[in-house]
Write the structure tokens for this entry.
Amino acid sequence: MESHKIILFDGVCNLCNSFVQRIIRNDSKNIFKFASLQSDYGQKFLKENSLESTEFKSIILIDGNRYYTKSTAALRIGKELKGIYRLSILMLIVPKFIRDFVYDIISKNRYKWFGKQDSCWLPTPELTKKFIN
């Protein structure tokens, strides 16, 4: 698992689930593993790092001993994907407070705009190896 980068996401958020599915389709190097923030793995990580463990306002990218949140996580994920997503790394030149301001607006309204599920999305049997329980 050490060679993989881990993405923690809100498992009931439709926008987040769509983002994960898009990552899976464009992860040609197969470097990402996933866990919901609601999972045992996600909750343990949040608590160990003194992060909010009940209101899920950020995607988290775990890369070795470092982790990234909000816009920085999303942009660093994009740079690893195939196609146009690789260009997302260029957005890191925009100051973090501006990027995170926009991220926070989307995060705050994501359930209203995109909806939410009653329970976490379950991957298909062939995708289960990409997910951490």
User: Anything to note?
Assistant: The mean pLDDT is 88. The longest strand covers residues 5-9. Residues 5-123 form one domain.
